[in-house]
Amino acid sequence: MANVARTSLRRFGTQTARKATVNYAAPAAEKVNQYGIRVSQAQGYVDSFTGAIGNTPLIKLHTLSKQTGATVLGKAEFQNPGGSVKDRAALYVVRDAEESGLLKPGGTVVEGTAGNTGIGLAHVCRSKGYRLVIYMPNTQSQGKIDLLRLLGAEVYPVPAVAFENPENYNWQAKRHAERLQKEDPEHGAVWTNQFDNVANRRAHIETTGPEIWNQTGGKIDAFTCATGTGGTLAGVTRYLKDVSNGKVKCFLADPPGSVLHSYIQSGGKLNERSGGSITEGIGQGRVTDNLKNEVKELDGSLNIADEKSIEMVYRCLDEEGLYLGASSALNVVAAKEVAEKMGPGSTVVTILCDGAYRYADRLFSQKWLETKGLRNAIPKHLEKYIILP
Length: 389
Ligand SMILES: Cc1ncc(COP(=O)(O)O)c(C=O)c1O
What we know:
Layout: E1 2-10, E2 18-26, E3 30-32, E4 38-40, H1 48-51, E5 58-60, H2 62-68, E6 71-76, H3 86-100, E7 108-112, H4 116-128, E8 131-137, H5 142-150, E9 154-158, H6 169-183, E10 189-191, H7 199-215, E11 222-225, H8 231-243, E12 249-254, H9 260-265, H10 289-292, E13 300-303, H11 306-320, H12 326-342, E14 347-352, H13 360-363, H14 366-371
Parallel strand pairs: 6-14, 7-8, 7-10, 8-9, 11-12, 11-14, 12-13
Antiparallel strand pairs: 1-2, 3-4, 5-6
Helix pairs in contact: 3-4, 3-7, 7-8, 11-12
The structure holds pyridoxal-5'-phosphate.
Residues 84-86, 115-117, 226-233, 280-282, 325, 327, 353-354 line the site of pyridoxal-5'-phosphate.
């Protein structure tokens, strides 16, 4: 295994060019060329869309590493073929349904989702020949509905009501699957139930966690990320705790409006959900089955204000050339705060869940920032990125 250490000149946003040292231990089936590009030496190709899921790079965040004296690393989940961390869970819940015998060739997958899980499922279902039915709150943008339909899903926008209400989009999805299963048991239909189906968490125990451990060569002191379903945080935490005998510290990063931070801080008191956040796809009003077992394993939690997350969206663009969605930016803020806690010399890893492409019309719009009361969160030197009226 060759340990490649190189020095290269890079330009970060408006800053002057500076030296960045790349340390990357290339596995046997990989060579790293003079520009730091990993050239695979392995033979073969992947079998369809699903074979391209996972094995995402771990990226050093230089400015934050320098600021904290720690090595701050982001797992580039936006490089999954469907564009987000949710491709992993989508594949696992579909495979779980196949293995349980509920889903047969030509069958139907039904899910309640407003975002990346739907997109991941749409790709996976299309590539495997399943029908996909999506229920989502009717508050979601037309753009999301159009994209899901483009990817072949049947989409039902339904009134946005609380999880406890039987008309909530998740319960409607469940009933739809049960109906189809009765009508056509030969092909089968399944409600993949991303929140409480632990096949989601298993995706991260079996793929994301081991990848992080191997990519850091076991030199990792802490991990932090936010939760939607909790699959990523719980799965990676489970794996890292087991493989390191509990040495890797794991922290929840929580947005405003989520109940989990106060749940952890209070030692298990579940408050009513109130308020919200600009960070789509994360924040939770309950402890899901995916998260349940790992909550007690966590070493703490951080509450990250929207002002910090939006500033980090702009900073990552300017300082690292990374075009990230707000949940990734929240994770990066949390990683910085954890790095400050752990101290110089430590290694902290987080998740870069998806890119900014799906949110650009909001994140870089003057009017949207004003509406959300976040215009002043953008420092003067980053205002040039507010390119939309
Ligand atoms: C953009 C984004 N970030 C983070 C998450 C959270 O991931 P998980 O559901 O594994 O907790 C999601 C989930 O949908 C998401 O869409």
